[in-house]
Amino acid sequence: MSIIFVSNRLPFKGNATTGAVERSAGGLATALGPLSDRMDSSWVGMWDPDGASKEEYKHILKKHHCVPVHLTSKERKGYYDGFSNSTIWPLFHGFSQYVTFDDGTWEAYQKVNRKFCKAVLSIAKPNDTIWVQDYQLLLLPGMLRKELPDASIGFFLHIPFPTYEMFRILPQRRGILEGMLGADLIGFHTYDYVRHFLSSISRILGVENHAGTIWADARMVRADVFPLGINYQRFAEAGASGKTKQLIKTMLTANRPAGTKSMLSVERLDYTKGISNRLRAYETFLERYPEWREHVILNVITVPSREHVPSYKRLKDRIEQLVGHINGRFSTPSWQPIYYYYQSMPFEKLVAFYRDSDVMLVTPLRDGMNLVAKEYLATHDGTTGVLILSEMAGAARELNDALIVNPYDQNQMVRAMYRALTMPEDKQRRRNATMQDRLRRFTSARWAEIFLRSLSQVKEQQGESKVRTINDGTRDDIVHAYGAVSKRAIFLDYDGTLVPFVDDPATAIPDKKLCKLLSRLAANQNTSVVIISGRDRDTMDRWFGELGVEMIAEHGAWVKIAGDTEWRARIAVNNSWKERIRPILQEYVDSTPGSLLEEKDYALVWHYRGVEHELAQKRIAEMRSSLSSVVENTALELSEGNKIMEVKVTGVDKGSAVSYWLSNNDAPYDFVLTAGDDTTDEDMFRSVGSETFTVKVGSGPTSASYRVKDCYAMRDLLQRFADADETANH
Ligand code: GDG
Q1: 268 CA from centroid of ligand 1 (Å)
Q2: Residue 57 near residue 45, CB atoms below 8 Å
Q3: Which CATH class is domain 2-225?
Q4: Which residues pair with 129 in a beta bridge?
């Protein structure tokens, strides 16, 4: 299999001190590294030689099939410092106060995503697998999908996906979601993020899902959970090595009184990491438990990050002041409570810090996953050590045996520090063992393997559904089949098939263009155009009466065949049932803002297009349970359509209506086409048989054999029929 990994950074970087080019040690590079070495793969990412020689960097990239994307400093500033880190990063982590909105940075973000797209296209083949990583490239899956409709495209978001209430703030919210939906599989670290994403696509794009399966632009997409792990063995081995022991002795324990316990915090300097909250909790701890003064130290490592972004500069000052304040307040001639390092540590030193620490404080205010927590546990493989972990980190979903804290609850943090420092050793080992077991199995390599396997499963499922999306080629075939015969029947649903949905169904009047198109088609004596709708007779007469089309109203209850002046009732029923059902449905209308009741001859219809998604789902469940006993053993049934719930007379459906129409028109039809968007149209598709053309309009599962994207694509097909008629007549 050929695979293209795409991420903001390439897995190789220049070392500013030595000038050498090295493999990056970040979580992603270690997760995908072994895979990329094993497979026929390439990697697309930003050109960033840093301190290394450009020639050497270029050479290594070429050797490892890396395709660099060159950005100007202006592009990089707008895309990376700007939209990625000053808009998306704070917003997705729930820090709306730090979000900046700027058209210029959005422009740059789009431009750079396009540059990445171009770089991928320069090496991609039509059926390649492309795996796009993270929040800097949210638009890329959509851009790639346009160019490579058949490619397997995966997307993984490493940071949280925010709640709908937070996400909706973003002016570019639609574009971002549409970009993500270009992928076939969208992965997140936790189920909460999946839920938030699904809620946003439902409320913002009106795209629904069934247990994480989404229909977007007539394509099946899945959203699922894939918690990223670490290279456990690497950290476990390094933690137990003699070199680490030596480093701990010379670098760490030598500098503090014997018997002192150590706590550690390590992260990029970032406001999401809760460094100030942690320092304040430590101050309160020393205040509340004076017996621990001179017996514990806290090592704080903050790695320089995003120094060009103003909020980061201010944060650095605040943290340094706080460290100074605590050290000034509590230090004694032989002890200082905090050792502060503002630098990136080489791997060996980082491992020594991990291994040396009795307590690890990982208390971010919000964090997609947090690998530091996992790395700490791995370096303590089989030994003691206590992890205090924020419930706001994705890792808390997996590491239940850590001391889980709310980072905003200072008292709880203080108590957790005390508990951690006084926890019996056998208990520490026991708690760690369960978590270490999990981390040993779910490594970063396994994460990548599982994600890619799921991606190919999604592709298989897409292939299994036999529906063919109408493209230029298939459209020409259908138009050709239409033109080649003399007797045709075209059955067209109306709402959602010929016009888009609107909140108030009464306003969905056919526009002039559509009326003209339908009359043109119906003007051909050899073509019967039948509008088959759930709408009532009066509306249909008013809207289509003058167009020369035939009509089937109320999902098949009434039929008006060419030459009829009156509607024919297909069944005779007593409508007294309405008196019982109407008050029940009216109650639902009263208690559900945005919904309305429509009365038809053979049905009562509850419309909920204008209702909030979750509320509508709740009401439908209630309705199903309260009405099913009422309609049981009667000639009524409950039927669900596109944002409608209907109580109707049994046996009235579009399928039987189409059969009725065909049996009342004796000419043999050489070309039958049925088109619809709704579950009620599925009856029609099933009734006509496989030698006809059945067309599903829009997304969702269907038994139709073709699919078009939306009502405009449907109109385009009809337009071509009309054009074919005209050409044939000249
Ligand atoms: C995102 C999400 C999610 C840190 N300091 C040093 C150093 N590190 C290494 C750690 C660890 C990595 O950086 C940090 O991993 P995190 O998971 O904490 O966070 P990010 O990579 O910033 O970001 C996060 C992650 O993606 C993966 O999906 O977990 O939630 O924000 O590997 O070891 N490494 C060295 N010196 C340091 O000073 N050598």
Answers
A1: 7
A2: no
A3: alpha beta
A4: 3, 152
Each residue of 384-434: pLDDT tens digit?
999 999 999 999 999 999 999 999 999 999 999 999 999 999 999 999 999
For the CA of 266, the closest atom of ligand 1 is: 5
- Angstrom distance (rounded) from CA 275 to CA 590: 50
Structure-token match 């203080």, residue found: 414
pTM of the model: 0.83
- Taking 80 as the threshold, does the pLDDT of residue 31 lie above it? no
On the CB side of 198, CA atoms within 13 Å amount to 23
Among the atoms of ligand 1, which is closest to the Cα of residue 272?
Answer: 31
Nearest Cα residue to 657 out of 550, 503, 565: 550
- Please answer whether residues 360 and 264 qualify as being in contact, where contact means their C-beta atoms are separated by less than 8 angstroms: yes
**% of the chain surpassing 70 pLDDT:** 99
Q: How far is the CA of 370 from the centre of ligand 1 (A)?
A: 7
Enumerate the active-site residues: 493
CATH class of 232-441: alpha beta
Task: Judge residue 1's burial from the number of C-beta atoms within 10 Å of its C-beta, 0-12 exposed, 13-18 middle, 19 or more buried.
Answer: exposed
Instruction: State which of 24, 89, 132, 158 you would mutate to test the pocket of ligand 1, scoring each by most atoms of that ligand within 8 A of its C-beta.
Output: 158
- Burial, 212: exposed, middle or buried (Cβ in 10 Å; 0-12, 13-18, 19+)? middle
Q: In the CATH hierarchy, which fold is given to the domain comprising 468-571+652-729?
A: Rossmann fold (3.40.50)
Q: Are 603 and 647 in contact (CB under 8 A)?
A: yes
Which residue among 371, 391, 392 is best mutated to probe the pocket of ligand 1, counting the most ligand atoms within 8 A of its Cβ? 371
Q: Measuring CA to CA, which residue among 131, 695, 209 is closest to residue 453?
A: 131
Q: Please state, in angstroms and rounded to a whole number, the distance separating the CA atoms of residues 269 and 362.
A: 13
Domains 2-225 and 468-571+652-729 share a fold: yes
For the chain, which residues make up each domain, given as ranges? 2-225, 232-441, 468-571+652-729, 575-649
Compute the Cα dihedral for 86, 88, 94, 100 and give only its sign: positive
- Over range 208-231, report the average pLDDT: 89
Which amino acid, 503? D
From residue 443, how far is each of 130, 158, 528 by CA, in Å?
A: 21, 16, 62
Q: What is the pLDDT of residues 257-315, one digit of tens each?
A: 888 999 999 999 999 999 999 999 999 999 999 999 999 999 999 998 888 778 888 89
What's the rounded Cα separation, in Å, for the pair 48 and 10? 8
In this structure, what DSSP letter does residue 165 have? H
pLDDT beyond 70 at 628: yes
Alpha helices (H) along 526-612: 537-544, 577-591
Name the DSSP letter for residue 292. Answer: G
The 3-state DSSP class for residue 291 equals helix
Q: Does pLDDT of 467 surpass 90?
A: no
List the one residue out of 569, 532, 573, 570 whose CA is nearest residue 553.
532
Ligand 1 closest atom vs CA 228: 28
Residue among 349, 369, 361 at smallest CA distance from 264: 361
Query: Which superfamily does CATH assign the domain made up of 575-649 to?
Result: Trehalose-6-phosphate phosphatase related protein; domain 2 (3.30.70.1020)
Backbone angles phi, psi at 667, to 5 degrees: -60, 140
The tens digit of pLDDT for each residue in 316-372 reads 999 999 999 999 999 999 999 999 999 989 999 999 999 999 999 999 999 999 999
Of 447, 432, 445, nearest to 354 (Cα)? 432
**Cα(24) to centroid(ligand 1), Å:** 11
**What whole-number distance in Å separates Cα of residue 93 and Cα of residue 166?**
9
Q: How far is CA 263 from the centre of its chain?
A: 37
